[in-house]
Amino acid sequence: MKHLLATDGLDPAFATAVLDTAEELKHTLLGREVRKLPTLRGRTVITLFYENSTRTRVSFEIAGKWMSADVINVSASSSSVNKGESLRDTALTLAAAGADCVIIRHPASGAAQRLSGWLAEAGTAVVNAGDGTHEHPTQALLDAATLRERLGSFEGRRIGIVGDVLHSRVARSNIHLLSALGAEVVLVAPPTLLPAGVESLPVTVSHELDAELPALDAVMMLRVQAERMHGGFFPSAREYSIAYGLNERRMKLLPEHAVVLHPGPMLRGMEIASAVADSPASAITEQVRNGVHVRMAVLYHLLASEGAAA
């Protein structure tokens, strides 16, 4: 596989191979004083971010460096983009400079797909680190890795995704990946925060969080993306929290084995109570930790495994 652009249509066998590799890498590095592998020595990985990021950008950088790649961060705000350079010209410049892989985050849906087309001749791999409201495939993979670690398997598991589904690329990627791996996905949100055509997705839809919680094996709380909202999607932050926030009372409705996830950054007190975010059921810190190993695995399969382009 040359690129990782989406989970929609992603081969479940490839996804499982990435999860297996991530698990192996995690065990390989466990307890090491120097967390460094020679796997990608001589490779150049460039992160190209047109939107702000902490977890994704840092974990990709750590992943590349732990595998001995040369990692270069390019921020749109401090690059020639500010002088009017197009995405295409920026991409071709990075490829000409020797990039083996470009990891892109962009506000426009489809940007990663376009980039992969422009870089096809150069043989540069492209990883989608989030494009508009479209997809965020490595986030879904790290979420799957965390769920597999906590629950053991996906088959027959019921996973709730709660909140701002409409603007969430994380939700879209998780819907496709978790369904493909055998889980049942339940979307819980107000009607105004569900995308058009949701009935065509492999999901169950609900508007009542309390009614769904007792039957969930995991619940993924989504950030309310106010920066993408133009108009009123719910009456107020308080009303949203009352209807869809995961508080201590609601936490007690979940089964004892249930896992709580959040892709971050969290709006504590609105989407999720601090007592829940910091509880033993919460795997939020584990998601970040697993994100490094999953992104190491993605880079390995794109750049170093048998069949990866030279």
TrEMBL record:
A single BP term in Gene Ontology: amino acid metabolic process
Assembly behavior: Heterododecamer (2C3:3R2) of six catalytic PyrB chains organized as two trimers (C3), and six regulatory PyrI chains organized as three dimers (R2).
Keyword Glycosyltransferase: no
Domain Aspartate/ornithine carbamoyltransferase Asp/Orn-binding intervals: 156-302
Record-given protein name: Aspartate carbamoyltransferase
Residues that hold L-aspartate according to the record: 83, 169, 223
Function according to Swiss-Prot or TrEMBL: Catalyzes the condensation of carbamoyl phosphate and aspartate to form carbamoyl aspartate and inorganic phosphate, the committed step in the de novo pyrimidine nucleotide biosynthesis pathway.
Domain of life of the organism encoding this protein: Bacteria
Reaction catalyzed: carbamoyl phosphate + L-aspartate = N-carbamoyl-L-aspartate + phosphate + H(+)
Start and end residues of each Aspartate/ornithine carbamoyltransferase carbamoyl-P binding domain: 2-149
UniProt-listed Enzyme Commission number(s): 2.1.3.2
PANTHER family, alphabetized: ASPARTATE CARBAMOYLTRANSFERASE, ORNITHINE CARBAMOYLTRANSFERASE, MITOCHONDRIAL
Positions annotated to bind carbamoyl phosphate: 55-56, 105, 136, 139, 264-265
PROSITE patterns reported in the protein's UniProt record: CARBAMOYLTRANSFERASE (PS00097)
Protein family (similarity comment): Belongs to the aspartate/ornithine carbamoyltransferase superfamily. ATCase family.
Broadest EC class assigned to this enzyme: transferase
GO terms assigned for molecular function: amino acid binding; aspartate carbamoyltransferase activity
Gene Ontology cellular component terms for the protein in this record: cytosol
Pathway, per record: Pyrimidine metabolism; UMP biosynthesis via de novo pathway; (S)-dihydroorotate from bicarbonate: step 2/3
Keyword terms of this UniProt record: Pyrimidine biosynthesis, Transferase
